[in-house]
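Training component of the fellowship. As part of building independent skills, the fellow (R.M.) carried out the full modelling exercise for a liganded target. The chosen ligand was zinc ion. The inputs are recorded below so that the supervisory panel can assess the work.
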Amino acid sequence: MTILGIETSCDETAASVVKDGRQILSHVVASSADMHTKSGGVIPENAAREQVKSIIPVIQETLLETIKLLRYEDIKGKGAIASPQHSLIADFVRDKIDAIAITAGPGLIGSLLVGVETAKTLAAVWNKPIVPVNHLVGHIYANMLVPENTVHSTQYTENNPKFPAIALVVSGGHTDLVLMKGHRKLEYIGGTRDDAAGEAFDKTARLLGLPYPGGPSIAAKAAKYKIENLKFKIRLPRPMIEEDNFDFSFSGLKTAVLREVNKLKDAQQFNNITIQQLSYDIQEAITDVLVEKSLRAVKQCGVKTFLLAGGVAANKRLTEKFKFEIGHLDFDIDFRVPLPKFCTDNASYIAACAEYNYHPVPWKKISANPGLTIMDNQ
Ligand code: KG4
Ligand code: ZN
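Fellow's submitted model of the complex:
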């Protein structure tokens, strides 16, 4: 199938066209992150206002890119090139798009509504099936996508993972570990009891005076940290790492960082070097816990595949640690992580998820649902 995916759950407005759940025909993401960098975090009202403005241009752009890629104007003949863009798009959608996939939740209500209501309108007008997608499950399907530079090749590999699999979804608002026995066969095995991993990066970055989003800011400072600059011993806690369960807790880390920052400020030693040092240990603490708990789940459940997903999966140190630990297991397991640009929010994985979990719903029955958990809509 060829699916138009639409995603507006947080501060991105994204639309993609994906074939067979893996081949990306076009991938457009408009982000209002710069605006939120200035305000130090996402202001929901502002994010939704930007999305109202950009949703139609983003969908138009993704469809026009696909039209160009498939040389659809040529197929339609000279008249089509001269025809207005909207009628070319309408012809293209009628002929080539099989369904629309839309993020139904979780996320910010105002943001979700922009995407959901637009997708429903398009489904009604174009008379296309519409598939609601759980954003958290969607993240996992970024692992099915093949890089865009293979688009012009007629061959693109089957990329289906072997089940059972463990998936760790680490995003700005969620940290979930699930056992996947197949598509739409998820079992919840653990998750965060308070802050999500991405939230821990974002909140601690703020305490260090680093810009939003905190994950890439902390990673950049941590990369500059040099062991020879170490003057103060900072060893942040690794919350719940020893506990015999698959749950996480990151709010204590935030408190520990605040304490260190205050101590350094009192001693007038809060400077670039100590910020680098703190960033380094924040990244180490978060990634240590994520890797330890996930590996325990992998061993206990005896799975064939490990799927890492969500914005925090873009973290290089996290993937390095997973690769190392998985490489040292005494059984074979396929470790997958999407390219960094597919880890953070985009519509390609929403379209991919709809392909593998195809369950169209009459558009009238679809509504934005900010409170969905990873186990909803299975
Ligand atoms: O999945 P995502 O794009 O949006 C949500 O669904 O929340 O995840 C955003 C989160 C933010 O907390 C951001 O700081 C974090 O992902 N993030 C990273 C990196 N890139 C994004 N965290 C650590 N390292 C990164 N390189
Ligand atoms: Zn996300």
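The panel noted the following from the submitted structure. The pocket of KG4 (ligand 1) is lined by residues 10, 171-173, 198, 201-202, 213-216, 219, 310-312, 314-315, 344-345 (CB under 6 Å). Residues 302 and 331 are 9 Å apart (CA to CA).
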